[in-house]
Amino acid sequence: GAVVSQHPSRVICKSGTSVKIECRSLDFQATTMFWYRQFPKKSLMLMATSNEGSKATYEQGVEKDKFLINHASLTLSTLTVTSAHPEDSSFYICSAIHGLSLPYNEQFFGPGTRLTVL
Amino acid sequence: AQSVAQPEDQVNVAEGNPLTVKCTYSVSGNPYLFWYVQYPNRGLQFLLKYITGDNLVKGSYGFEAEFNKSQTSFHLKKPSALVSDSALYFCVRYNFNKFYFGSGTKLNVKP
Question: What confidence tens digit (pLDDT) does each residue in A34-60 have?
Answer without folding.
Answer: 999 998 767 899 999 988 878 899 999
